[in-house]
Amino acid sequence: MELKSKKQPADVLLGCIVAFCFSTPCWAQRLCTVPPGPVTIPENNTADIQVVKIISSSDATLSVSVNPEDLFYVKGNVLMVKKGLDYEDQPALNSTSSRTRCSSPLQVNESVEVLVENVNDNPPNFAQNHYVLDVNELAPVNSSVGLIEATDVDSEPLYYRLESATEKYFRLENINTPKILVKSLLDYDVVQKVSLVLHVQDTFNGSASNEPFFTSVAMITVQVRDVDNRPPWFQPCLRTNLGLAKLCVSGGYRGKVNLTEKEEGPLVLEPGPVFARDGDKNRSEPISYRILRGNEGNIFQIDEDTGNITMTKAADIVGPIILTILASQVNNRDQFAVTQVTIEVMKKSRNPPRFEKERFEGFIYSNSIPESMILRDRTTNRPFRVRARDEDFASGVNPDMKYEVQYSSYVNVTPDGFVILKRVVKTESFALQLQLRAVDSTTGEFGTAALSVQVIPGNTEALKAVAVPSPSNIGYRPGDMALLGLIMAALLILSLIVIGFLISRLWKENTSLEKICEVSLQNPKCLGPCLRSDRPRSGHRDSLQFTNDGFQNEADPSRGKRWNVVPRRSTFPQPRSRILPLERRSRHCSTCGVYANHVTKGSPSVRRSRSDGDEYGMRSILSKQRRKEGQKTVWFKESEDSSDIEVEIIPDSVDPDTENQSDEPDPG
After folding, report:
1. Do residue 94 and residue 132 come from a single domain?
2. Domain count across the chain
3. What pLDDT was estimated at residue 216?
4. Is the model's pTM score more than 0.70?
């Protein structure tokens, strides 16, 4: 019992202590209370603004026990801010806390968490206003050139863009990454430097929103580097493009040397000395030269540094020598080019061209139009012409001669030597002093002469006579050419018809003549009378005489019955034929188509009418025999007068029965 009684006071004391401990917060809570959670204050606030209102008892005293940088104070039961807060200048105040002490008989501390809200109040900034970047020409598309970023203390996402005028060669990787990429190939010969304008802003499409936004600009210069991507180019050359590549094509070089003569010093070439430069415009790499081929006789040599070609000995063969020249970079032999040098070896010209006179004089009317010809004198309209001779030619005419007028814009010379007005001469009574040249285009030699052109008052008629029509002023329409072609075709067809008609006539006449000759050979009885002439011609003429050997040496027993007809030339005069007029030819010969109204005195009918003692008595060598077709009957009669010898050929048209009757002897 005593133990139990001793424990009761101790329990009571412990309960009082616990009750006191639990009763103290409740009492303090009733003394001072703040709203739960943090309090947010935007940055750039004005001074003396309320942070939080503290709920406290009427007898409580409030004070700030923890005040970072002396930013807060208590006014009544309100926690206040002494000055404006900047999120960027005081990063420590992004999240801060203040402790307020409530004093009464007891002291209570209350903590207030204050958050500083970040406001977009600063623009983005580049590290520098101007940037310089380098890129190689012909860099691949989408290759990176550089990265240029801006910073913003407000830590907002930034948005970039390039001005549209500078987007031809470059672009950005994306709107938030300002990495500059190659958009198209760069050629140093075309562009050496590109200026870019890079814009940045802290709000996407800020102009379309009501939110405040800030921008910034940076200038960027991209320099294009010339890389060694082209070989040497011989000069002069013609530039051309082959896809993305650029070429410069040289037409080669030409020179002339005399046969068996060695030229001293560098050869004079056209259009200039051998020279090549680096095809890369800004590099100018050193070039070396050498002869690849064509110098079989080692007649020429080339300077490796200058490209000048000289002769080591004289050329001994006439004709062109073609040298192939190589030009390459000294530091990069893979970059090279070749060209040709054609050297013409020719016989030395002994005489240069020379004009007929050293000074010429011509005339032109003041109202002459262009393309009018200069006149020889004042009185006639004969055109003025200059000529030059080259004594190296037998005729004095050099086909390679050309004429030219030096330093004149008024006249020109044609290849034939005529001087033609180029433009209108507006001033009367003055003279043009000109210099003429006759140039041998093969050797380059030339001769000179002076020309004085007197301008005289205009003459309309003479102007019409000497004006040379310009081809550009005379045009032929397609219709004119078609009409001309039609006329020419018609003339050609007509000519062919006439030629064909003449050929057919000649062919027919030749055919008729051949038939007459054939008939005359077969039937001389029919054609012979038509060719007789009543007028004997004097003089002797060789004639063809047929001699029947069968009548010679008839008593010779050694001769057989075979006989030959051998033609031979007669040396005594022959009887002439006589031609009868058409009106006396009443009977037509059906065999040969000619008229015959006579009977030869050697015919059988004449012989029958004559007496036996007639000197024309003859005998037939083929009497009583049937003739084969194609054979002829020949009658011979010896006569004291050789001029009376006649040969008669009986035509095939004679009836065989009639022939037999005529062959029978006359019974009388």
Report:
1. no
2. 5
3. 92
4. no
